[in-house]
Amino acid sequence: MRRADGHRSVLTWRPHASAEEMRAGPLAVAEALRSAGYPAPATELVAQIGHAVVIVQELLPGTKVDRLDHRTLDQVLDLNARQAGRLADHPGIPAVDLHLRDDGAGYCLHEPLRRHNRRSAALERWVAAVGADAGPRMAGTDAVHLDFHPGNLLASGGAVTGVVDWDGAARGDRRLDLVTLRFGIHAQETDPDVTARLDDVLDAYPEDVLRPLWAHMSLRMVDWAVRHFTPVDVEHWLDLAERRTG
């Protein structure tokens, strides 16, 4: 959007949301990171319009990252490390709900997996079993973006200039964002060995840390594919999910 004085910003609209909850949750996460020099956009306006929230944020420089290369991955890993412990002084920010045993609000639904086919039903049983051990909400004081994929990264001249779309941000374990990134590049071209490098990072996580993070993203992506895409897309996400369900 462009104001009368020529100032440009980004206008977003979130239906069925509360301005108060957005300020106290996702927008507070982004602001906590911004204060530490993290390239998250400043919030210029938050307004409740009926059932929806209108948010105006700073327009950051750069364009969307279409292909993850090694230089960008290096910067992403650094950004992720900077999210560690960032919400230690913000105990009121809600923790991430992984929805391993219950449904999210329009996402992470279990029943579509139970009904779709044998493979998806087996995955749902594994997700629920992981949830029985892990508990519903994440521990930790890290800032978590929750939708950390290349489409939400901005870059210019090879340098990452911004991370956008903080609508789901919460408190928890920053390592979820790198698991999300791994799923995000599953359907994209990357530079040679970038995916292998990211897999090596995930392989270094303790099993009791990685399993619930992987279960959450497996449920999230397979459920979405079952309800919105083709059976071929479902198999595509099942192939990735099953790599770590053993």
TrEMBL record:
Source domain of life: Bacteria
Entry-linked InterPro entries: Aminoglycoside_PTrfase (IPR002575), Kinase-like_dom_sf (IPR011009)
Protein name: Phosphotransferase
Aminoglycoside phosphotransferase domain location: 10-192
Transmembrane segments: none
Organism (species): Streptomyces tropicalis
